[in-house]
Structures are given as structure tokens and as C-alpha cells.
# Entry
Amino acid sequence: MRVHALTTGGVRLKRAFLFPRPGARRRLDLFLPGSWSEPYPIHCWAIEHEERLLLIDCGETAGARDVPFARFEVQRRDELPAAMAAAGLSLARVSEVVFTHHHGDHVDGAIHVSAPTRMHEAELRFLAAGAQRVTRRVMRQPLPAGFAPAPFALDGAPFGAFDRSLALSADGRIVAVPTPGHTPGHVSIVCVDDEGRHVMLAGDASDTLEQLHARRADAVAPDPAVHVATLERILAHCAQHPTIFLPSHDPESMARLAGAVTVA
# Structure
């Protein structure tokens, strides 16, 4: 098995997004003046295993529109085709795409992929809700053309600290697990590498490893308590299994993957 980090540009995030205040100000501060971060990467992931090439998310495109708490820095040269080529991979080889959740910086790059796509059924239900459709319209965040992932259910056996799962490979070494919080149907993908380590492709389960250790809900989670419970569950899993934790926007994710650095 081989896991590749693919970087599709960057995004500057408002400090209120990264370090939200509790209570009513948690979301309000996202729309008020505030300081901004340096660019954070926008990663997606390619997994080579069992003669298949599986993509986890597709990254962002140059057409991304800024929102009050995120400023995108993505050029055409940063999009998925170039990121794949830089890793020595071909889009024509992709057998399937699995999305961690529905946000644009994870799904917009799907315009470059002809392979089937899948998303957790709970996330698709959330995406179809009227409030989400209004939010996307107000924020000018349309879904990519032709976006129609097939639903999947997490109806498999417990996996580590997670109470249910879905095997994505015949040998069970690639597994989707529930990590709700950032969005209600968010999933993470765990790959068991050739040394038995768990490589967790965590999407936006947290922005960084620091946030995981801090057990800090983010500013957009519909229910902060659900998000904190997920962070606790991830840490419990890391205590049970050596785990390389790879959020999609952590500047240190690529180095942790390259160095096989597990969560302490």
C-alpha cells in the first residue's frame, strides 16, 4: 500500500475559525473583522492498493470563491491534474473517489475525475437540507457540475475505537469510519499500512493535530459537543493503534506521512 499527499493550493483562515470563542460568538466572529492565518494547504489523498487507485477527496479549483472566513489561493497549476502528475499518478487510473464531506475544497476538484464517486449517506442528507441549499447560495458556493455521488452506509463491524465502519478494500485495510462534527456526515478513511500503522486521512475532522489534542470544536460544527466527542474518539483510537493523523489542512501532515510519525 502507498498513500500519496496531493496539494491543491492553499487557504488563509480567519483566526476566529481556527480558535473560536465559545458560546454565541463562536459563529458570529467568523463574519466580523479579524486577523488571518498564513496559507494552510488544501490536501487530498491518493491510495495505491490491490491494483487500484483510490482518491480521498479531490481538492479545490482556481474558481473557488472566498467566504468571510476563508481566502483561497489556488491557481490552475495547483489543481488535481497537476497534483496527480507531480506524484507520478494518472487520473485515468483512478477507480473511485470517496469524499470525507461536501465542502468545496474537498469536492470541487471532482470536475477532473470521470471515476465513480461516493459519499456517506448522512452527509448527503445534510447536503440536501433546505438550510444548506440556502447557505451555499448566499455564500456563492455551488456544487461542481455533475456532482452526484452515490451514497454509502457505515453498516460494517466496529473498527478500533469506532463503533461502525465500511471496508473500502477487499482485504479490509482501507476503512471508512464516522467522524461527525465539522459536518454531521463527515467520515475519515483509515489505511492500515504495510507495517500495521493506521494512516488516518481525516478530512476536516480537525484542522490540525494541535486542535485534536486540544479537543476544540471548530467554528462551523452544527453541534460542538458532537465534534468534541469525535475528537475524543479519534484520540482513543490513536491510543489503541499507532496512528498517523493527517488532516487535510494541517501544514505538518505531509511531513508526518513522510516520516511515519504517529500520534503520541
In short: The chain has one domain: 2-259.
